[in-house]
Structures are given as structure tokens and as C-alpha cells.
Target: Chorismate dehydratase
Amino acid sequence: MTVPVAMIPYTNMAPYRQLGEPEGCRFVPMVPRASIAALLSGDVAAAAVPVGGLNALDGVVETVGRFGIAADGDVMSVLLFSRLPFDAMHRPQTIRITGETASSVRLLYLLLGQCHGFDRLPYLAADGQVPDGELLIGDRALVRGQAAGGAGSIYITDLSRRWRDIHGLPFVFARWVVRKDAPGPVKSAIARWLDEFMDREASLVEQAVPAAAAALDLAPDIVRRYFSVIRRCLGDRDIQGQELFFRTIGRLGRSPLFRTAP
Model:
């Protein structure tokens, strides 16, 4: 019997998938937000979980080394598409937010709140309403961004770039974690797999380019650039950026983050 490990099906995880599955494990495709509940329930033993969900997983999981998904500037796949500039995206403007996110929605909340004030955040668009802005992540954001936006989307804001310009630090979107009650051999297998990934990262990234480019119908050079901005083996500055995010969302966060118009 193999142990389920959540695997984000986005292209940014393709180099990880290129290595194959950890010994005794099998990948279960799962969008970022879904991995939080799966870890809580024990449906999966490990995941690259959104940092926005780590608070809910406190006491349930432990991080595995310094592995994850981060960017120090443009990330190319966490984008706000809007008909107005970012600096004009406040009430009474409306936004739509992908249901796949747990970290990027919190990042957008902080960036908009610190720009306009948290009492002037844009409203969530009602069902059937055409929003003034839309937050997309993953492959949908990457492809649409390369196409220079869709109809009515004039402005494209890379949230990671905006965070970097304000704070001077990378933004960490996800961290590899394993359930604390996972069997020792499973924890060891995940750790060995990630260590091997670190040793082979450059070759695995290059090997993943052709299939990823074909799947997205993008030029290989675009995918290669995309892979180059993703930070998977994290350093001190990444951890500092993550800690800053935790402190800031802990101080300024609320529930719900965004609200519908009264």
C-alpha cells in the first residue's frame, strides 16, 4: 500500500513531479487550498501546503527542511487582472477571487489594505456580476498573463513583485510539510526525496520544460523563464519573508478577508 501525498497540478510543481514519487508514496492531484483540509483529515500524509493554511495546521504538521514555492520578485502566476490600476482598486470596485487559493488571497488582502486602508477594500463581486478585477493563480494566471490579459483586463499586477517592491523580501507561497503522526519511514522517504530534488534541481527543471511548454501551448523560453523565477529550495531571505507575512497577517487579518457589498 502506498501513502498519498498531495501534489499541486500546476506547472510550477512540474520539476518536483519530474523526479517521480517518493518511495512508498503516490501523488494525489490537489489544488493548494484543498490540501489544507486533506492534511487535517489525514487523507494525505504530506503536501506543499499554502503558507496561508499553516496556522490551521498548527500541531498537525511539521515542515520538511526548507522546501516550498517562493519568488523574489515576479512570480508570473499569481496575478490580479483589473480594468483599473492597482492603486484605484478600492471600494466601490469589485473583485473575484479564485477558490483555489489560501496564500495569494491573503497576500492580495494585505497589499490592497496597506494601499487603500482595510476599510476601503474592494467588494467581492456577486454571482453573475462582471468584476472590476480578478485574482487568478497557477496555470490560468500564467497563460492569461502571457496573452496580455483577457477582454476588459487592462492592468496586470504581479502580487509577488508588489510584495518585493514594498518589503524587499521574497514571498513564500507554499511549504512542504508532513503530518506529525506519519510513520517514520514515510517522513524519511519525503525527506530523502526532497534532498534528492535539491541535488538535481537544475537538471529536473530543464527536463520539465518541453512537456510543460507543450501542455500550456507556450514557448519553451517562457516556461524556462517561469521556472527560473520559482524558488523551491529556500534560503534565509525566503524565511524572513515568510515570517514577515505571518506577523503582518496575524496583526491585520480578519474573517472574512473580503466582503460583499451591503
Summary: The first strand starts at residue 3 and ends at 7. The mean pLDDT is 96.
